[in-house]
Structures are given as C-alpha cells and as structure tokens.
Design brief:
The protein is α+β, with helices and mostly antiparallel strands. The protein has three domains: 116 residues, Helix Hairpins, CATH 1.10.287.110; 74 residues, Urease metallochaperone UreE, N-terminal domain (HSP40/DNAj peptide-binding domain, Sandwich), CATH 2.60.260.20; 91 residues, Urease metallochaperone UreE, N-terminal domain (HSP40/DNAj peptide-binding domain, Sandwich), CATH 2.60.260. It contains eight helices and 17 strands. α1 packs across α4, α2 runs antiparallel to α3 and α3 crosses α5. The chain is elongated and about 115 Å long. The structure holds zinc ion (2 copies).
Length: 374
C-alpha cells in the first residue's frame, strides 16, 4: 500500500470517527451509554421535540434526528456497526439503501400502542407523601431531599460480569433461556413442554467472573439528591413525578418516583381548606366589648391588620378577602382568610373593678351579685 493510499485510509477513518460521535451527541449521551440510558434519552428528547408539542423552528428536524439516532443505537447490531464504521458502515450494511423507520410510528410504538413484545417492562413506581409547611405552600419553595434507591452498577452496567468477556452463552440451553422437556405421561403418550433453563435462569447467558464492584448483583445502593418544586398554592395530594427515577434493574426500565405534597399539621397555628386559610386569634374581654386593632403576621411575614368595631362574640369568624393561599396555577389570585376569635376572661378581678362593672352594667342599682348579700 502506497503512502497516499494509507493517508486516505487514515483520513477516511477519522472522518468516520467524527460522525460516529454524532448519533450519541444527538441523544446527549457518551459512547459508553447503556441500553437503558439510550431509552431514557429517547424518551425525554423525543417528547421535548415532538412537533405536536414543540412549535419552534427546527424542532421537527431535531425530532427526526433523535428518532434516527435511537433507531441505530437501540439496536445492538446496528450500534456495533455504527461504532466501528459510522454512518457509511450502516449504509453498506443495509445494502446501500438507507432505510429509516418512520419517526412518528416509532414514537407511537415507544409510548404505547406498539407491539407488546417490543415494549420493555417498567419497574415499580414509588409513591411517597411529603409534608411541607403552609409557609412553603404560600410562597412556593424548592426543597432538597434524598432518596435511597438501587442503581445499575456503573462498573458492569448491570451485566454483573467483570468484563464483557465474562458473559458466555449458556451451554445448557444454547442461549435460548428455555429448554424442551419431554415427559411420558402414560405408555405411548409423551408431552413436550418448555421450561425456563435453570442453569441461566432464563437469561440465556452465564457469567464467568463476577463484577468486583457489585459482586455480580448488577445493582448497587445509592443515595440520590433531588429538588422538589412546591408550586404556590399546591393542592393537598398534588403529585410531582420524577420520571424513571425509581429503582433501576437490568430487567426493567426504571419506574417513576411520585411525591405527593401534603401540608404539615401545625398545632394551634394556621390551617388550610383548599385555598382558604384559617387562623385563631385570642382577644381580651375589653377588646371583645369595645373593639380593637391588632396586627397579624402572615405566613410570608407581611402584616394583616385585624380591626373590629363594637362587640365581637366568642367564636365569631371574620372573613378577610384575598388573604388566603394563592390559587394553584393562578397564583396572582388568592383565597380568603378566616379569623376565628376566642375571648379570654381574666382569672380574677379586683373589688374595685367589680364595683365599677356593677355600676356600668346595672346603672339603676338593681343588679346585685350573690356575694354582695353577705
Ligand atoms: Zn457490577
Ligand atoms: Zn440456559
């Protein structure tokens, strides 16, 4: 081979290597991405750029690109060819005619409605209740929290093997995962049935040397941090979904983590009912009889003036418009605040006060307190 020819080969190879990085880039992945990473990336990006949802210019082209990248990388044979020989290699593999699946059909079958055999089983969804203070529901908040979960071992990527050379085709079933068992039920009558291969547990492969990181368990315990966005006025039981963030396993696509927001029960303090807020305020006998002005510090620290003229009965509820919780998804509007008044009586009164009260309540002197008789 002459120097020029060699140079050309090198040039050609480097061109292929450059394009080889591209399909991974389209899915925002590195070349070591697992099958699960690829599915996750497709799931996220294809939704984001679906032209039904994304009206930005270029979204449809991007959607088609994403579909093509997924079509190639999710197929282990095509991925291998692509990794080694790039797009040109793929074309050669398909006999020169570039066959592309319809990206919309692909989307359809990925998100349901496709052949059940092509759908990957989804792992369990984890649902948790999360108590949030009313102050956080009033103002909206970002709350950091942690979840302990199982993730695929990042050393073996969920195979459980020390290296890819340690994954062998099961000799007992020839990689089928099942074996045919012939059984004689009665003389002359033999049934054939398929049973799961017990050598490989139905996987069709056996592991030579186990992965030293996970000890062959394929998954590891992991603590992951998340941020829960509490929307203003969040209703009780409002669900925030963290897609694909539940336990990982090589046997399924990770389910979702669902967080249900609940307001904390705060003793003696604020209570809510939908967007209404409830507060109990204690006033003195004098205030109950003569009226008053008081300041109530609201959940976010702003001050609401409580003002009453004349008599306030114990248990009276005053409605203050627009001082309740923000209305969910319309946070510029608020519900109402309901203040219930509790009247506290003095433990005892002085003889002088008593004399004055008698005079005040019974100006004609007809009123006699039982103890005055003594
Ligand atoms: Zn491992
Ligand atoms: Zn087997």
């Amino acid at each position: 081979m002459g120097t020029t020819a060699l140079f050309l080969v090198v040039l050609l190879l480097s061109a292929l290597l450059v394009s080889a990085a591209d399909l991974y880039k389209v899915l925002e992945l590195s070349k070591s991405a697992s099958e699960q990473d690829i599915r996750k990336a497709y799931k996220k990006l294809s939704r984001k750029y679906h032209p039904d949802k994304n009206k930005e210019p270029g979204a449809e082209e991007k959607f088609v690109e994403i579909a093509h990248a997924y079509e190639v990388l999710s197929d282990s044979t095509k991925r291998q060819i692509y990794d080694r020989h790039g797009e040109e290699g793929l074309k050669a593999h398909e006999g020169g005619q570039a066959h592309h699946a319809n990206p919309f059909d692909m989307f359809q079958s990925f998100f349901g409605g496709g052949h059940p055999s092509q759908q990957v089983r989804k792992g369990p969804t984890s649902v948790s209740e999360f108590e949030v203070s009313l102050a956080d529901i009033y103002t909206g908040a970002s709350i950091d929290f942690m979840i302990k979960k199982r993730i695929l071992c990042d050393h073996c990527r969920g195979t459980g093997a020390a290296s890819s050379n340690d994954i062998h085709t099961c000799t007992a079933c020839g990689g089928q995962g099942v074996r045919i068992v012939r059984q004689q039920i009665m003389p002359g009558m033999i049934t054939q049935s398929q049973v799961q291969c017990n050598e490989c547990g139905g996987r069709g492969t056996v592991i030579g040397k186990k992965c030293p990181h996970c000890g062959g368990n394929k998954v590891m315990d992991h603590t992951q941090h998340y941020t829960l966005e509490v929307p203003k006025g969040s209703p009780e039981g409002h669900e925030v979904v963290f897609e694909g963030e539940a336990d990982e396993s090589p046997d399924w696509e990770a389910g979702d983590v669902v967080i249900r927001i609940r307001s904390k029960k705060e003793h003696g303090g604020w209570k809510r009912k939908e967007s209404g807020l409830y507060w109990k305020e204690t006033i003195s006998v004098a205030e109950a009889l003569l009226g008053f002005e008081r300041n109530l510090t609201h959940l976010d620290g702003h001050v609401v003036e409580l003002k009453r003229e004349g008599v306030t009965q114990p248990g009276f509820v005053q409605t203050i418009k627009g001082e309740g919780l923000p209305i969910f998804e319309r946070p510029s509007e608020h519900g109402d605040l309901f203040v219930e008044y509790n009247v506290v009586l003095p433990a005892e009164i002085s003889p002088e006060t008593k004399r004055r009260l008698l005079k005040a309540f019974y100006p004609d002197g007809t009123g006699k307190h039982p103890t005055d008789e003594l």
